[in-house]
Amino acid sequence: MQHHENRAPLFIGIAGGSAGGKTSFAKELSAAAGNKLTVLELDRFYHCLGDATDKHEANFDEPSSLDFQLLEKVLEQMRLHGAASVPVYDFATHNRVGYEPLDAASVIVIEGILVLWHKRIRDLLDVKLYVDAPAAVRFQRRLHRDVSERGRDTDSVAKQWKDTVQPMHDKYVEPSRQYADNIIDGTADLRMIAKKFSASWLSQTA
User: What's the whole-number mean pLDDT along residues 10-25?
Assistant: First the structure.
């Protein structure tokens, strides 16, 4: 089967700090591009923690917590075959509970805090974006999300932020912004920005 270069999907990496606006931006891109865009969350690629009793204390903001090797394999399969099997991760048990098929669209957005950290993943990306927002804004958003959506209490969210989220951000996430082609303001009108970017990408894949 002949491989048509122009049919290969465009890989867009979106990195940035926790609660900086990455997921919101990815959702706006999906809304703007419809079924021509697929979002692949880096969160799917966490390593299993098995039966460890101290799972809730694990550092999920460190690169070693993620299976970048599997992500690389998935991206290569999508580029070659137009589909791949991607992991399903259960955050309640911190384990991989299976796999599901994902078909490649014209544009594939890979979204997660450390998407631009890993060199081999960066090398597979056609466009690299970093969504930025002030630490105070990100903390308030994270606090609101974890308390209202994940049933956490304020103290535990604040402790996790201070102990792992912010230190790992400073050590790994923030330095990866140097690789971005564009910095997106996570407090701006993400819908407008998404419309502009998706129109540009879709014209490249037409």
Answer: 96
